[in-house]
Design brief:
24 strands, globular, 20% strand, 557 residues, twelve-stranded mixed beta sheet, alpha/beta
């Protein structure tokens, strides 16, 4: 059996100019990065903005196992099935972070015969977007420290700098550090923090900005800290937004690649959904909608994280509404949610699956509450039994939602025909009523947080720590009460406790802190023990990755 990377290395890719031509784009619309990658110029959307949008299909999932449930794989396989069935499908996916690539989860380019390629490039440096975001973020950090060093003309309180540095790798040693050590010439000593690049506010801003002017306005609005008198300091006070935008001007353009079956794929922007807003860029999604009959996009982790943020934040900002939402479900995740250890989920266990399938009911209810009819994609693994599949189908019937077994990992597009046909059917009947959001923007901040946690997670309420209360008061005092809410919590549970699996009842969410991301326009509510800089596992994937003299890469997955 071939590995993912071996399958990708055998792919027969078309030149990216041919992929673009299939979309009606010319070479002059592209900024090429070799033969198989390109950025699509911002002028393309401006030219097509009056064209009717295609159908929008959002792919989400149930609460996953630590290995993930194949959401990206299903997204790619679905688009490939659509193409085989005669539809013009375009993918809009997130860029992988190198943290998971060298950590534990691996890459995010799909798997088996449903991947986007060139897989190695996409999972590594790609077109340099992550580096541009890291550089722009850390330029602002350097300008903060330089202002402190050069007489502190803005009277910044070094104890109240709130903008962290970032790195696109897992490095727990950098979570909490002291900078400016070594004497007067080396800066003003202060406590500093590092997050992973995908958790950076600059990543969120890149994904939400629609053009260079929007980008600069958002960058200038980033809250970096407070003065000694308690008043705020923004990036524009440091005159940083122009230089930051310069570093991001190419990164703002969406990246175009292809799937193994030559489906066009916009892979652009990659915030994690458990610590950030979990959606690819607005530019990528809206361009894909103009160029295809169907745009298949994804949001990170389960519907309680990525899909909620896609619908409550991204759709509101961009004026979007999915025609349907595909919820990816697996037998192994239901067994995991039913109390089976991860290493035992390959073994048949109908009793545990019956218990864990309650998790699916919660995610179905979530999507219905937004006013959308979901479709359940049962992502089949070779260890699944017919009896287990039958249980999931029965639950879908009881909930009144369609379901389809997919085998896109093993069969590519052919393994997604049933799912594609049901997506077509639902999309044709989709109503145009507005989305039913989890909260209204003009509601008090605590009310918005509580409404989200009750409706989406099933919580009884929210416990606000003293620090969170203080942060909310600061946000209100600064006039940010109308911001969106972005909850950072574990992806493994509907609660903020990763050990509470299935569909827990009788729990409350614990809001520890609230970060103000004034450039992005939302408040990040940190719950539980959420780390914005992950660490490497005991045996990191990096130990198995290598490159040979002829350039062949091994170990990526």
């Amino acid at each position: 059996m071939l590995t993912d990377i071996e399958i990708a290395q055998q792919a027969k890719m078309k030149p990216i100019t041919e992929i673009a031509a299939d979309l009606g784009l010319s070479e002059s619309d592209l900024v090429r990065y070799g033969d198989y990658k390109a950025k699509v110029k911002m002028s393309v959307y401006d030219r097509l903005k009056d064209r009717k949008d295609g159908k929008l299909v959002l792919v989400t999932a149930i609460n996953p196992t630590p290995a993930g449930e194949g959401k990206t794989t299903v997204s790619i396989g679905l688009a490939q099935a659509m193409k085989k069935l005669g539809k013009k499908a375009v993918l809009a996916l997130r860029e992988p972070s190198m943290g998971p690539v060298f950590g534990v989860k691996g890459g995010a380019a799909g798997g088996g015969y449903s991947q986007v390629v060139p897989m190695e490039d996409i999972n590594l440096h790609f077109t340099g977007d992550m580096h541009a975001i890291t550089s722009a973020n850390n330029l602002l950090s350097a300008m903060i420290d330089n202002s402190l060093q050069q007489g502190n003309p803005l009277s910044i309180d070094p104890r109240r700098v709130v903008f962290p540095r970032v790195l696109d790798l897992n490095d727990r040693a950098l979570r909490n550090v002291i900078v400016g050590m070594g004497g007067k010439a080396n800066g003003v000593p202060r406590e500093e923090h590092f997050s992973i690049t995908v958790a950076s506010e600059i990543m969120a801003i890149l994904c939400l900005s629609t053009d260079i002017n929007d980008l600069k306005q958002r960058l200038g609005s980033v809250l970096v800290g407070y003065k000694y008198d308690g008043s705020p300091v923004f990036a524009r006070d440091l005159k940083a937004e122009g230089s930051m935008a310069l570093l991001l001007k190419d990164a703002l353009m969406p990246n175009l690649v292809q799937s193994l079956e030559n489906v066009p794929a916009f892979v652009h922007g990659g915030p994690f959904a458990n610590i950030a807003h979990g959606c690819n860029s607005i530019n990528a999604t809206r361009t894909a909608l103009k160029l295809g009959d169907y745009c298949v996009t994804e949001a990170g982790f389960g519907s309680d994280l990525g899909a909620e943020k896609f619908l409550d934040i991204k759709c509101r900002i961009a004026g979007l509404k999915p025609d349907t939402v595909v919820i990816v479900a697996t037998c192994r995740s239901f067994k995991y949610n039913g109390g089976v250890k991860k290493e035992d989920t390959k073994e048949p266990n109908v009793a545990a699956l019956e218990k864990g399938v309650e998790n699916l009911r919660a995610h179905i209810a979530n999507i219905k509450a937004f006013g959308i009819t979901p479709i359940i994609a049962i992502n089949r693994f070779y260890t699944d039994t017919e009896e287990e599949i039958a249980v999931i189908k029965r639950v879908c019937d009881e909930e009144g939602v369609p379901s389809a077994v997919t085998e896109v990992f093993a069969k590519g597009g052919e393994g997604g025909y049933e799912l594609a046909e049901k997506v077509f059917e639902i999309c044709e009947k989709a109503d145009k009523k507005p989305l039913c959001y989890s909260y209204e923007l003009d509601e008090p901040i605590k009310t918005k947080i509580e409404k989200l946690c009750k409706r989406v997670y099933g919580a009884d309420g929210v416990n606000f720590d003293a620090e969170a209360e203080k942060n909310i008061k600061e946000a209100e005092d600064l006039g940010f009460q109308n911001f969106y809410i972005c909850v950072a919590k574990t992806q493994y549970s509907l609660t903020d406790d990763m050990k509470k699996l299935g569909r827990p009842k009788g729990f409350r969410i614990n809001a520890k802190r609230v970060r103000i991301l004034s450039g992005a326009g939302f408040l990040v509510v940190l719950t539980g023990d959420i780390m914005t800089m992950p660490g490497l596992p005991k045996v990191p994937a990096a130990e198995k990755i290598d490159v040979f003299e002829d350039g062949t890469i091994v170990g990526l997955f």
